Amino acid sequence: MKEKILFIVNPISGHKDKRNFPSLVENLIDKDKYDFTISWTKYGGHARELTRAAIAEGYDIIVAVGGDGTINEIGTEMIGAEQTFAIVPCGSGNGLARHLHIPLKADKVIKEVINKGVKSKIDTATINGVPFISIGGVGFDAIIADYFAQDPHRGLKTYVKLVTERYFKYQPERYHLILDDEKEIDCEPLFISFANSNQFGNNAVVSPHASLNDGLLDICIFKKPSLISIPVIAEKLMTSHIDHSKVVDIYQVKKIKVIRNHEDIANVDGEAMMMDKDLLVEVKPLSLNILLPSH
Q: CB 130: neighbour CB atoms within 10 A?
């Protein structure tokens, strides 16, 4: 029996031209294995609607062709579903794809992952019930996510520019953390990341040992470093050695309560969302079926 596979393509993600994507699929996909359909998103939230419809129509595999926003829309809609999620990364950061060692070129994904990949399961998580797959957080990174979403330019350069512009004005806030109803921490960090995967994107690795199938979240509490130490910390972030720095404390938990002074935004897979004052972040073990490279 052939499997039904749907490619949901965001035509504008990552500013990459995707007009040749249908011919790429036509030429490379294993037609003995799949009957394929391609749908294009037309507006924000359309990927989510297309995913819901595809689940109802009994597709076997649903593929996100786009950036982190498209991947989050489709992937979070598939949490707990029988269908298998797959990724053709076309964004500016591609954090989840990099963590999962999924190729960053569409032709390689079709040949190596779609045609020859293996089905697996990964953890997801929620912040106050809102699902995410890669990384959530509060503090400075949520503020940067907010500005980044509003900036017409994407990519690492824009991210670095925003961080540089906002860093010195940012005053860390106070948080009370309760880890797995046991350990309590008071802190005033630059930001706190709830890392399910290991990186923000562009190989900026926030928690080098984070795993997508261990049933745990890595809670990364980043202190605001001195100006002189920023280049060293940036280098450790980009070389997967940030855990060897005194600037971050990392704890592994199944859930964390975050008590803040007021309601504020949180970073949910790169999207800044207004949330209640208090947050409950929980892991959902092995809740998403996903197609991965076989090696």
A: 17
Residue 160 has pLDDT above 80, yes or no: no
155 pLDDT more than 70: no
The predicted model gives 59-70 an average pLDDT of 94
Rounded Cα gap, residues 162 and 263, in angstroms: 23
What is the model's pLDDT at position 185? Answer: 98
> What are the CA-CA distances from residue 277 to residues 138, 176, 265, 266 (Å)?
11, 11, 9, 10
- Dihedral angle at the C-alpha atoms of 29, 59, 2, 94, nearest 10 degrees? 30
User: Is the Cβ–Cβ distance between 100 and 292 less than 8 Å?
Assistant: yes
* 96-141 per-position pLDDT tens digit: 999 999 999 999 999 999 999 999 999 999 999 999 999 999 998 8
Q: Are 253 and 77 in contact (CB under 8 A)?
A: no
* 8-40 pLDDT per residue, tens: 999 987 667 788 999 999 999 999 999 999 999
DSSP classification of residue 71: H
Q: Say how far apart CA 192 and CA 190 lie, in whole Å.
A: 7
Contact between 70 and 18 under an 8 Å Cβ cutoff? The reply is: no
pTM: 0.92
Contact call for residues 36 and 9 (beta carbons, < 8 A) = no
216 contacts 223 by C-beta, under 8 angstroms = no
List the domains of the chain with CATH numbers: 3-116 (3.40.50.10330), 130-285 (2.60.200.40)
Q: Strand 34-40 and strand 3-9: pairing?
A: parallel
Helices (H), the chain: 21-28, 46-56, 68-77, 95-99, 106-108, 140-150, 155-167, 230-238
Exposed, middle or buried: residue 70 (CB in 10 Å: 0-12, 13-18, 19+)? buried
pLDDT the model gives residue 193: 96
Q: For 216, list phi and psi in degrees, rounded to 5.
A: -135, 155
